[in-house]
Design goal:
The protein is of the alpha/beta class and 296 residues long. Helices cover 40% and strands 17% of the residues. The chain binds NADPH dihydro-nicotinamide-adenine-dinucleotide phosphate.
């Protein structure tokens, strides 16, 4: 079997177009422009790239982008004061604090100071609890993107066996909750899982979110399974810098029914879902019905 490639780049463009339509509607019918505030503390080069890309895409879909770049030495009090200001600013519908924060700042404290209704990353403890209890929440962007691609490919996920490799708060755990919400039978695997190959071989859906280059070989994949590769790993191969996932793409694509490539799979969906979450937050804040297909 040669797997169908799930094109995350094309899918993300579709999501952005849906968001842009919704933004036009909000402007024309309600006189509202959704706004996303992104806070960056320090000068981490990767974070700077992400923040620039988020700002650019926010403007491209017609929303307002507010970037707050703070000194690496910024005190916790000053950061919390800025978040308080954004929480109370009616022009701001989504707030994202770029992680990781410098060591002297308490990440949990900072994230939990964001108004949960504006927490477009879905990391606030209230949103984690709402997702865990199957209530309406803001859903973390990367798992939301994975879910959208799975729903698009399969229609219903009900009754499927899903394995999520990785149990981080950002990807693994919320991914598992979403799959459970769609009535999959879910296994969460991690570094202490016994016989991981056997666990993965039973899965109709494999979501790999580990951060170890190509650790899942093709012979772990059940014939016809759907493989979602969240991993982003930089490696040196043949003297070149290369981006690879957590799954060995070449061998997995020979057995899987469908697979996301790296790059061009899950990656582009993450920012698209951030924009989707911002438009959703804006609709909720204004008592308007939510756009269909952009939430979990
Ligand atoms: P974390 O480091 O927070 O979590 C990694 C998880 O993998 C842990 O739960 C760990 O288990 C598990 N793990 C480590 N080694 C093994 C192993 N040998 N077997 C099974 N499980 C193992 O990573 P993140 O969740 O933040 O990210 C995972 C990957 O996804 C990274 O490559 C990251 O770059 C990428 N990513 C991509 C995004 C995108 O937009 N495409 C967004 C976010 C992340 P344990 O808990 O036991 O230590």
């Amino acid at each position: 079997m040669v797997a169908q490639v799930i094109d995350g780049k094309a899918f993300a463009a579709k999501v952005r177009a849906q968001v842009a339509d919704q933004v036009t509607k909000l402007k024309e019918e309600n006189g509202i422009t959704p706004g996303l505030a992104v806070v960056l503390v320090g000068e981490d080069p990767a974070s700077q790239v992400y923040v620039r890309s988020k700002g650019k895409q926010t403007v491209e879909v017609g929303m307002n982008s507010y970037e707050h770049k703070l000194d690496p030495e910024t005190s916790e009090d000053d950061l919390l004061a800025l978040i308080d200001k954004l929480n109370n600013d009616p022009a701001v519908h989504g707030i994202l604090v770029q992680l990781p924060l410098p060591k002297h700042l308490n990440e949990d404290l900072v994230i939990n100071s964001i108004d949960p209704a504006k927490d477009v990353d879905g990391f606030h403890i209230s949103n984690v609890g709402l997702l865990g209890t199957g209530q309406k929440s803001m859903v973390p962007c990367t798992p939301l993107g994975c879910l959208m691609m799975l729903r698009d490919h399969h229609g219903s996920l009900s009754g499927m066996d899903a394995v999520v490799i990785g149990r981080s708060n950002i990807v693994g755990k919320p991914m598992a909750q979403l799959l459970l919400g769609d009535s999959c039978t879910v296994t969460i695997a991690h570094s202490r899982t016994k016989d991981l190959p056997d666990v993965v071989r039973r899965a109709d859906i494999v979501v790999a979110a580990v951060g170890r280059p190509e650790m899942v070989p093709g012979d772990w994949i059940k014939e016809g399974a759907t493989v979602i590769d969240v991993g982003i790993n930089r490696i040196e191969r043949d003297g070149k810098n290369k981006l690879v996932g957590d799954v060995d793409y070449a061998s997995a694509a020979e057995r899987a029914g469908a697979i996301t490539p790296v790059p061009g799979g899950v990656g582009p969906m993450t920012i698209a879902c951030l924009l989707a979450n911002t438009v959703t937050a804006c609709c909720r804040a204004n008592g308007l019905s939510e756009p269909e297909g952009l939430t979990a």
